[in-house]
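For reproducibility, we list the full input for the magnesium ion complex.
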Amino acid sequence: MALITYREAIKQALDEEIQRDENVCIMGEEVAQYNGAYKVTEGLWAKHGDKRVIDTPISEAAFSGLAIGASALGVRPVIEMMFMSFSYVAIDQLFNNASFCRYMSGGLMNIPIVVRGPANGGTNVGATHSHTPENMVANHPGLKVVCPSNAYDAKGLMKAAIRDDDPVFVMENTLLYGEKWEVPEEEYIVELGVANVLKEGEDMTIVSHGRCAMLSLQAAKTLEEKHGISVEVVDLRSIRPLDEETILNSVKKTGRVLLVEENKPYCGVDAQISHIIQLKAFDYLDGPIHRVSSIDAPQIYAKPLEDWQIPNEERIIEGALKTMA
Amino acid sequence: MATPKKKSASKSAKSIDFAAAPINQQLSKEEKIDLYRTIIGIRRFEERSLRAYNQGKIGGFLHLYIGQEAVATGIVSLMEKDDHIITAYRDHGHALAVGMSMNECMAEMYGKYTGCSKGKGGSMHFFAPDKNYWGGHGIVAGQTPLGAGLAFALKYKGLKGCALAFLGDGAVNQGSFMETLNLASLWNIPVIFVIENNGYSMGTSLKRSSAEENLAHRADGFDMEWEVCNGHDVYEVREVANRAMKRAREESKPFLLEIRTYRYRGHSVADANHEKYRTKEEIEEYKRTKDPVNVIRQKLIDEGVMTEAEAKKIDQEKKDEAEASAKFAEESPYAPRSEIQTDVYSEVDNDTEGKLKGTYFFND
Ligand SMILES: Cc1ncc(C[n+]2csc(CCOP(=O)(O)OP(=O)(O)O)c2C)c(N)n1
Ligand SMILES: [Mg+2]
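The corresponding predicted structure, in tokenized form, follows.
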């Protein structure tokens, strides 16, 4: 096992997939000659050249649609959104064309593209650059979406996404790019639709995804040490498809649930999870399901306020204590 | 094929004395000194903000306007009562030019409650509607249809004004901008699109991002007038922009103005690579021959409008003002947490009698 960053893990996945399949190419703003705004694609252009690693103008709608069209003929483009926030100027391409072409063609067409890039707040850049649209993506049948919380998952999910025959969004996180985890040297895949129990516990379940899963894990340790509460932490990894079974098994074991995500609460991913739990494990619940989401407002710029707006350990612990009350 | 509406002014720029243009001739001595004051003010303010950023007092992104100051200064100096302005994230220069104070701008970058947006918008999102300044927008080209909308409203309301929508050379490749060009021309909207062509969009040179490097030529495809000029001489900017603005106000016609300029710093301060995609010589050459601060300072001294000593004094005043703004920002408080959820809905903020129906916010 090598200790590598989340950024390096994604780069390895891209590099390996480019080598494995001649149809895989990367496209986006500053991905080639500049080595990526966040250096995720560093060195790939030098190694694989203009055909496989392609700089685009600032034309998200055009290159997203172009990727969809190219994928119809077997090219497998991985498009980088410098920030997932910028995919909003390409919504028609991604949320109409990528998600519905297969359906509207009666299954005659499929769209094997990957849309990747950071989707997070906490970086002091204000409302226009801090979106977490995994809930919006999941609200569009035909699209898939994953939110890796660590380097191992980032690499494994990226490879799965590239090999997938449907459009898959990979939501990364700029605050995780520099963090390190153990990643095996040999090839592996993390399948879509499989959650990961980060920590086992008895008293309550925290369901989370992305960076919030890591914060929840930290909070779980504090809850155990300081409050004597044994917390099980389920990291969804994949939002759609969703591993209902792992969620429900954990809930049935603990009877109490806290949902933690960086999304804004209204129609966030956790709204769906909450529904599933009450529908399929109602009799196992010992109390209402609680949530910790971002405070319901556009992202504030001021750093200390933003740090309070998005979930943090303090707010998760507060939520957990409410859940146990 | 459409014939080009206007020829580029840049080729003949050397031979034209823009100081002699009527719009510049009519400036009083004090107004001329004000142009210098604004340009040097922007420079000193941003240099101070850079220091604050490097000290970790300002976070996020910091897109400096250093090198481009004469563009916003020249155009804003032509604004009349019913003229409006909107720009992208490289917005500090425009903000100071319209008369926003260094204090409120610096405090906003620090994220403080005393900032122009209470610390909610940050460096990329300055607003001052009382000064006809409508932002400060973070999404590339997203402001351009809004600019057309400002102009649409002027026409709708029968006001004699124009709207100025600034964008970068990379932003021209957004669909929203091209759609807006067509609408503006089709509907005869009095908007001037000002492309501040600094040669680069982040690390991508113009050559690598636009198939037709003469960006203003795009106007031809929309039957819109265009012109190209240089951005280092505030007199030149004023001469060219004045004609476009006058025409917009008087004939309600849009205009595409491409201004050739240059940014000295990286795309944002985080862009440490900026000497990799361009040469040090390229940067130094521009600074040496076309620095907008030096150009106007020298012209005013040569004209006998101000002395070297007076120029120095103004420079020092602006340094002091910038320094004071950093102190002001430093000493200002952050907004209380309760402010996170204000300014989201106008109706909620103004619901003093509690008459609104329905739930507006959804945290547990
Ligand atoms: C839709 C969108 N895509 C990408 C970005 C990231 N981005 C911000 S500025 C920029 C470069 C813009 O260059 P240009 O238009 O030339 O303006 P300049 O920065 O030179 O003033 C990019 C790619 C963004 N903010 N919005
Ligand atoms: Mg530019």
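The longest strand of chain A covers residues 24-28. The pocket of thiamine diphosphate (ligand 1) is lined by residues A 29, 58, 60, 82, 86, 89; B 90, 138-140, 168-171, 198, 200-202, 267 (CB under 6 Å). Both points were considered when choosing residues for closer inspection.
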